[in-house]
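Researcher: Structure prediction, please.
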Amino acid sequence: MAVAGNLNALKELSDKIRQLTTAGFKADLAKALAARAWKETLDGFRQSRDPYGNPWRPLAWRKGTPLVDTGQMRASVSTEATDNGFRLRIGVVYAIIHQYGARVRAATRAQSRGRVGSVPQRQMVPMKETGGLGPIWLGAFNETAAKLIKDRVRGAA
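Model: Predicted structure follows.
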C-alpha cells in the first residue's frame, strides 16, 4: 500500500502550529484578550448588566442608568497586555464599591442621624467568588483565541 502527500505542505502546517507556542503569539493573544475584556466591560455598562448577564439593580435615588451618570467610570476602563496575560483597570477610586457593594455610614453623627445605607453590588468584571468568567466572558475569550489561532494557521494545506 502506498501513501502520497505533499510533504512541503505538511512542513508548512507544522511550522505554523509551532509558531503558536512562541512568545510573540502569546503577546498577540494577550493583546487580543485585553481588547476583548475592554469590550465586554463596556458592553456591561451599555446594557446595565453584570458579566453574567444579570441586570444591575435599579437606582434608588435618581432616575437614569446605573453607573453612567457622568460617564467617568466607564471612560476610565483600560487594559494592558502583560507577560502572563493582561490587566484590566477601572481607574476611579469608587469602582471597587460598586464591584463588591458596600454598607455605608455617614462620616459624622450629625450627617447620618443614625442612618446606615448601602450601595448594591453592580459587578462590572467577573470574579472567582461570583462564578469565574461565566458563559459571556468565557465565550468571548474562546471566540477571540480561536480566531487568532485560525488566522495564524490559515493558508496551510
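Model: DSSP finds six helices and four strands in the chain.
Researcher: Thanks, that helps.
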